[in-house]
C-alpha cells in the first residue's frame, strides 16, 4: 500500500511536470506563432505557388481566429488582406488588396495549354467567404477597382462596387453574369475616346465556360450619338449578341442577327443641301437600319463578316458590306462594298468596290453606274437619258506608292443649257495617278499625287454653242500634271460643219498645246496651236484652206498674250492680243503685201474687179471690251480694172479710229494718176475723211477734157445723197472729139454746175447748167448728119449755111440725166457767121445715153484693151 501510494505520488508529480512542460511549450509556441507560421508556410509553399511574406494572427476567442495581416506574392500578383476573422465555417475579410503586374516571359519557356473539360471537384462544406473591401489594381485597367464580394451559396458569389457581377462555380462549368451598367464599364467607355458617345448603356453579359468552350449571350440596350458639324445622328441598339469560342479548335462565331441598329438622323438633311431638291428627297431618309444577317466567324487565323446591310426607311437605298475577311497570316483584309439606289428622281445608282489588302499590298477595284432620265429643274443644265459609267482600280504598296487608274464614260441623248445644246453626246475620260505615300516632305509638293496623266475623247452628233450650230464635233486630248503642278495639255478638236447666221463652214481642225504651271489663280505657261478650216463661207465671201498658227503665254485666268498668224492663199495677217486686268488689247497687222494677194477676196465682193499691181499694208490696234480701235492703211501705186474702167497709180495713206461707236478718219490724201472710163480722168485728187460716222471724200477734183471736175463732198456709202459737181474750163474741142462726130469742129471752153442726185445707188443729174467761158467757134465741114439734114430741108439751106463757121459769143446748156444714163441737153447758142456777117441765135436739144457713149469710148481705148488682155 505504501508502495502504491508512492507510485501515485510519483505519477502525480510526473503529470504535473508534464502539464507544466506542455503549458510552457504552448506559451512558447503561441508567443512565437508569427515567425513559426511564416517558417512553416515558406516550407510548405513551392516557388510556383508564391511566397508568404507576412502573417499576423491571434486567437480571438476559443472558436475564432483573428488575422490582422496576411501578405502573399507571386511573380505577377501581390495579395494583402487585413482585419479578417475565421471561425471554421465563415471567413470574413475586412480589407483585401490584389495587385496585378506585367511579367516578361521568355518565349522558349511558354507552356502549351491543352484544353480539357472542366473538373473542379469542389469540396462540400467549404467555409463561406465575404470580403467587405476588395481593391484590384492591374496594368490592364485604367484605374483600380473597388469591390466587395459576398458568397450567396456554395461557390456562388456576388460582386458589387465598381463591377456588378455574379459568379457561379460548378464541378464542370463556370457561369458569370456582368451588368453593363457597372461603374467600371461606364468609366472604360468614357475614357476610350470612341468616335461615338455612348449613353444609356444597359444589359447583361452572360458567359458559360466548361473548359473546352466559352459561350456568351449579351443582352444589350444602348444609345450611341455621333457629333457632326450639321447634326448629331443617334443609333439605337436593342437586342442580343450570341457568341461561342471553342478552345480546342481555336474557332468561334458571333451572331449579331438579333441586334439591329436603328440610326436616326432627323436633322442631317443639310448634308445634302448642295444637291437638287428632288435628289435630296429621293436620297434622304430620317431612319436607317443596320443589320448583320449571318454570324461572324473567327478562328486563330481568320475573322469573317459575311454581310452587313444598311438600308433606309424608304426602301430605295441600301449599302452592303459583304465578305469582310481578316486573315492573321499575311495580315490580309478582303471585302466587297455595294451601294444600290432606285427611285423616280435617280433611276439607278449602283456602285461596287472590291478590296484586298495583303500586308502592305493593296488591290482595289470598283465600278459606278448612274442613270438619270431627266435633270432636276433647278440645275442650270438639262439632259435626256443620261448614263454615266465609271470604273477605277487602286493598286500598290500603302506605305510606299499607290497607282490609281480610272475611266468615266457619260452618255446622253441630249444636253442643254444656256447657249448650249448637244445631241448624242458620248464622252470618255480616263487617267492614271501615282501617289507617293512614303514621301516625307509633303510641304515640298503642291498636289496629293506624284503624277497624273489623263486622256479625253468626246463626240457630239449635233451641237449648238453660243449661236454656232453644226454636226460632228469631236474633242480629244491628253495631258499630265506632276506633284509641283507642272502640266502639259494637248487637245485636238475636229468639227464636221458649223453655221452661225449667214456664216458657215466645214472641216475645222484645231490642235492646241499648253506647257506650264497650274496655280490657284489660273494656269501659267506657254500655248501653241494650229487651226485649219477647209471652208468658211458667207453670202459675200468664201474662204478655202484657211490656216492659223497660234503661240503665246498665259498668266492666270485673267491674263494672257497670244499671237496668231492667219494664212489665206498668199495673204498673211498677224494678230496679237492680250487679256489683262479685264481688258483685251489687240493689234491686227497686214505687212507689206502685193495687192494681188487680195484678188481672191476682192473678187468675191466686187466680181468684176481685177487687180493689176500695187502694195498695201494695214494695222488695227484697239481694245475689244471698250470697242475702241485705231487703224492705219497705206495703198501705194495701185492699178486695177473694174469692168472696162481702168484705174492706175492710186495712192492712199489713211488713218482713223473707232471709239465709242463713232468713226473718225483723219483727212487722208487720195491721189490717182489716171482713170480711164471712156472719158479719161487724170490727176484725181481728194481727201478721205469721216462725217457723222461715215467715210466721205472731200475736195474732190479731177482733170478731164482739158478742164476740171470738182465736188466739195461725196459720201462713200450707199445712202442717198446730193453732190454738187462743178465743171471748169472743159475744152469743147476734146469733148467733140470724144463724140466721134467727124466733120464738126468745136472750139472754146465751158464751165458750170452739175447737181448729181444718188438714189438707191443710181445717179441722176437735175437742172445742171454749162456755159462758155470765152468766145467759141463752131465749124461744120462735110458732116454726114449735117449734110443729110440739109438734103431733107432744102428750104433751110441759107440757115444751115451760117453754121459752116460760126463764132459763138454765148453758149449755154441745161443738163439733165436720168438714172439709166440718158443725157438731155437743151443748148442755146448766140453768135455770128463773120464771113456772111450774119448774126445767129438758135436753140436745139440733144439726147444721148452717156453710158452707151462711154462704153463705146472704152471699146476704142487701146490702153484699157491691153490691160484687160493682160489681166484676163
From TrEMBL:
InterPro entries: YdbH. It comes from the Bacteria. Keywords: Membrane, Transmembrane, Transmembrane helix. The chain crosses the membrane at residues 14-32. Pfam families: YdbH-like (PF11739). This is Uncharacterized protein. It comes from Pseudoalteromonas rubra.
Amino acid at each position: 500500500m505504501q508502495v502504491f501510494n508512492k507510485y501515485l505520488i510519483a505519477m502525480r508529480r510526473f503529470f504535473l511536470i508534464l502539464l507544466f512542460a506542455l503549458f510552457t511549450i504552448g506559451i512558447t509556441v503561441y508567443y512565437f506563432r508569427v515567425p513559426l507560421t511564416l517558417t512553416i508556410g515558406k516550407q510548405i509553399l513551392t516557388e510556383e505557388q508564391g511566397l508568404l511574406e507576412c502573417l499576423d494572427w491571434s486567437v480571438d476567442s476559443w472558436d475564432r481566429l483573428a488575422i490582422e495581416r496576411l501578405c502573399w506574392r507571386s511573380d505577377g500578383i501581390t495579395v494583402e488582406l487585413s482585419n479578417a476573422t475565421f471561425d471554421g465555417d465563415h471567413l470574413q475579410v475586412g480589407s483585401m488588396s490584389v495587385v496585378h503586374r506585367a511579367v516578361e516571359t521568355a518565349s522558349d519557356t511558354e507552356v502549351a495549354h491543352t484544353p480539357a473539360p472542366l473538373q473542379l471537384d469542389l469540396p462540400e462544406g467549404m467555409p463561406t467567404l465575404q470580403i467587405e473591401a476588395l481593391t484590384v489594381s492591374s496594368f490592364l485597367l485604367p484605374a483600380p477597382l473597388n469591390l466587395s464580394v459576398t458568397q450567396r451559396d456554395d461557390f456562388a458569389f456576388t460582386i458589387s462596387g465598381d463591377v456588378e457581377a455574379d459568379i457561379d462555380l460548378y464541378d464542370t462549368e463556370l457561369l458569370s453574369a456582368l451588368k453593363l451598367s457597372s461603374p467600371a464599364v461606364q468609366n472604360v467607355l468614357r475614357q476610350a475616346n470612341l468616335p461615338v458617345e455612348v449613353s444609356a448603356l444597359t444589359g447583361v453579359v452572360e458567359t458559360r465556360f466548361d473548359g473546352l468552350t466559352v459561350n456568351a449571350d449579351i443582352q444589350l440596350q444602348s444609345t450611341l450619338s455621333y457629333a457632326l458639324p450639321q447634326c448629331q445622328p443617334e443609333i439605337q441598339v436593342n437586342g442580343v449578341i450570341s457568341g461561342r469560342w471553342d478552345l480546342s479548335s481555336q474557332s468561334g462565331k458571333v451572331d449579331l442577327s438579333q441586334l439591329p441598329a436603328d440610326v436616326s438622323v432627323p436633322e442631317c438633311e443639310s448634308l445634302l443641301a448642295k444637291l437638287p431638291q428632288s435628289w435630296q428627297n429621293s436620297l434622304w431618309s430620317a431612319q436607317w437600319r443596320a443589320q448583320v444577317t449571318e454570324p461572324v466567324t473567327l478562328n486563330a487565323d481568320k475573322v469573317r463578316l459575311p454581310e452587313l446591310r444598311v438600308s433606309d426607311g424608304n426602301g430605295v437605298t441600301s449599302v452592303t458590306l459583304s465578305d469582310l475577311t481578316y486573315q492573321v497570316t499575311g495580315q490580309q483584309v478582303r471585302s466587297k462594298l455595294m451601294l444600290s439606289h432606285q427611285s423616280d428622281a435617280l433611276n439607278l445608282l449602283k456602285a461596287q468596290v472590291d478590296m484586298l489588302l495583303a500586308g502592305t499590298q493593296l488591290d482595289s477595284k470598283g465600278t459606278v453606274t448612274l442613270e438619270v432620265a431627266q435633270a432636276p429643274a433647278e440645275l442650270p443644265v438639262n439632259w435626256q437619258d443620261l448614263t454615266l459609267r465609271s470604273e477605277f482600280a487602286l493598286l500598290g504598296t500603302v506605305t510606299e506608292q499607290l497607282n490609281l487608274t480610272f475611266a468615266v464614260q457619260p452618255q446622253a441623248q441630249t444636253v442643254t443649257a444656256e447657249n448650249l445644246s448637244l445631241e448624242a453626246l458620248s464622252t470618255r475620260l480616263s487617267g492614271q495617278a501615282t501617289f507617293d505615300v512614303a514621301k516625307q516632305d509633303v510641304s515640298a509638293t503642291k498636289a496629293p499625287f506624284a503624277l497624273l496623266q489623263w486622256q479625253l475623247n468626246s463626240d457630239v452628233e449635233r451641237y449648238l454653242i453660243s449661236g454656232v450650230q453644226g454636226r460632228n464635233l469631236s474633242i480629244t486630248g491628253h495631258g499630265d500634271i506632276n506633284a509641283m503642278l507642272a502640266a502639259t495639255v494637248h487637245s485636238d478638236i475636229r468639227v464636221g460643219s458649223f453655221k452661225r447666221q449667214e456664216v458657215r463652214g466645214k472641216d475645222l481642225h484645231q490642235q492646241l498645246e499648253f506647257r506650264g504651271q497650274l496655280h490657284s489663280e489660273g494656269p501659267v505657261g506657254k500655248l501653241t496651236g494650229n487651226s485649219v478650216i477647209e471652208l468658211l463661207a458667207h453670202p459675200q465671201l468664201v474662204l478655202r484652206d484657211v490656216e492659223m498658227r497660234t503661240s503665246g503665254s498665259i498668266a492666270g485666268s485673267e491674263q494672257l498674250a497670244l499671237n496668231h498668224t492667219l494664212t489665206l492663199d498668199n495673204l498673211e495677217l498677224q494678230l496679237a492680243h492680250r487679256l489683262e486686268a479685264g481688258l483685251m488689247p489687240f493689234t491686227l497687222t497686214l505687212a507689206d503685201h502685193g495687192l494681188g494677194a487680195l484678188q481672191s477676196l476682192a473678187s468675191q465682193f466686187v466680181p468684176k474687179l481685177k487687180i493689176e499691181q500695187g502694195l498695201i499694208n494695214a494695222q488695227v490696234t484697239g481694245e475689244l471690251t471698250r470697242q475702241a480701235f485705231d487703224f492705219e492703211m497705206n495703198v501705194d501705186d495701185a492699178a486695177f480694172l473694174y469692168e472696162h474702167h481702168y484705174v492706175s497709180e492710186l495712192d492712199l495713206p489713211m488713218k482713223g479710229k473707232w471709239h465709242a461707236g463713232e468713226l473718225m478718219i483723219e483727212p487722208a490724201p487720195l491721189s490717182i494718176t489716171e482713170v480711164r472710163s471712156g472719158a479719161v480722168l487724170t490727176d484725181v485728187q481728194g481727201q478721205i475723211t469721216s462725217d457723222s460716222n461715215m467715210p466721205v471724200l472731200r475736195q474732190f477734183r479731177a482733170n478731164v477734157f482739158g478742164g476740171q471736175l470738182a465736188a466739195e463732198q461725196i459720201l462713200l456709202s450707199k445712202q442717198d445723197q446730193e453732190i454738187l459737181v462743178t465743171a471748169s474750163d472743159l475744152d469743147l474741142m476734146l469733148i467733140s472729139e470724144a463724140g466721134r462726130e467727124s466733120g464738126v469742129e468745136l472750139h472754146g471752153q465751158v464751165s458750170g454746175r452739175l447737181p448729181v442726185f444718188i438714189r438707191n445707188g443710181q445717179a441722176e443729174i437735175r437742172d445742171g447748167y454749162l456755159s462758155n467761158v470765152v468766145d467759141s467757134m463752131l465749124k461744120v465741114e462735110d458732116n454726114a448728119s449735117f449734110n443729110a439734114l440739109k438734103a431733107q430741108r432744102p428750104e433751110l439751106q441759107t440757115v444751115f449755111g451760117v453754121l459752116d463757121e460760126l463764132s459763138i459769143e454765148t453758149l449755154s446748156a441745161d443738163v439733165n440725166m436720168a438714172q439709166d444714163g440718158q443725157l438731155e441737153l437743151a443748148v442755146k447758142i448766140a453768135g455770128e457767121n463773120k464771113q456772111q456777117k450774119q448774126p445767129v441765135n438758135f436753140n436745139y436739144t440733144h439726147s444721148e445715153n452717156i453710158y452707151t457713149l462711154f462704153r463705146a469710148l472704152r471699146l476704142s481705148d487701146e490702153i484699157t484693151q491691153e490691160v484687160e488682155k493682160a489681166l484676163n
